[in-house]
Amino acid sequence: MDCPKLRPVEMVPVRNGQRELILIRDPEGLMEESLIVSKDVAYILSLMDGKRTLRDIQAEYMRVFGELIYMEKLNELIASLDSHTLLLNERYETRLAKLKEEYESMDVRPPALMGKAYPEGRMELILFLDEFFSGKKTEKKITGRLTGFLSPHIDYTRGKEVYASTYSHLKNLEAQLIVIFGTSHRVSEKIWNISLKDFSTPIDRVFVSRELKEMIKDHPILKNYVCEWPHRSEHSIELQLPLLQFTLQRDFEILPILTGSMHEYIEGKKDLNDQEIEDLIQSLKECLSSCGKPYIIASGADLAHIGAQFGDYYSLDLITLSSSKAKDEILLDAVKECDAQRFFNLIKEEKDRRRICGLAPIYFQLRMLSGSKGELIEYEQWTDGASSVSFAGCIFYVD
After folding, report:
1. pLDDT at 31
2. Residue 33 lies in domain
3. Which helix (H) or strand (E) holds 3?
4. Domain boundary among 49, 82, 101
5. For residues 139 and 278, which has the higher predicted lDDT (pLDDT)?
């Protein structure tokens, strides 16, 4: 504990009246409840890099805030962080290894958001979704064969209109298999993280395609991208499943794929045309073709994340929001054309300053949907005045 190191966490500014606080969230999912700390404590946490001693942290705090923080208080803070497994140390490693072993042994991925993002009871969830879709009609006529859809992965409350508008177009979907790309919000070593576990929701169990599962297990390339742990508490795919179950009201199969970061490609450290990406896309296409079942390619992905909650210090005024919306519209033009290269290039040109968290899943979705057309169903730009998240719903089809 002489040089404590905080493990990767999310720090989100929140307000309690006039007081500014910091919400600490655990993307790894080891900490059951989020923590709220003051800004000065959050600053101390930012100094815990594994190199500074407690004396170093004490001196830096004195330099910035002009007052002494006693070593007793620092030790109490360290003990609290350790009890919540927020430090990179033996306690954390032991806890992580135990949870990974338990999760790997499961055949079914249990719902992580049940009772949080949606009701935990089966009938309660069905009634919730019935109200969710109440009065929502398909407003745009899609005349071709549906090949995919883009949906948000923001919480149901903020994304309700876009979710409902998008999923209302899936009622007559004939495809039996849905490949779902989703954003992995935790650090991931792999660009693809394929899950071969079935997923459960309060409504029922959603099965991974048995044929695809066996193909992937034996595939010389795809078998190396089976990685279950990132799926354990990730919401980007989970939020799609109750909506699919309620909309389709029949059995269907899935292949869940969480995508890692593409920042090395944005920064030019890797070439977008490298062999890894080409191998993944071609391998999946070949497996889907061999499987022989009608399928669609879906993604759970949001667009821009700007403002105080995401580390921006500029004012989130009407001009800023309008500018971000205009850039989103250009991105969505590329999405509608299924132009993956242009979609990526547009984000690269602005160095992903607006944090398009759907960059990777949408890019891979568009690569898989080459030759399809897209129809924008609905777009929204949520804001609380200090931060903003934008998201859209699209339907893809071929004539």
Report:
1. 84
2. 10-101
3. none
4. 101
5. 278
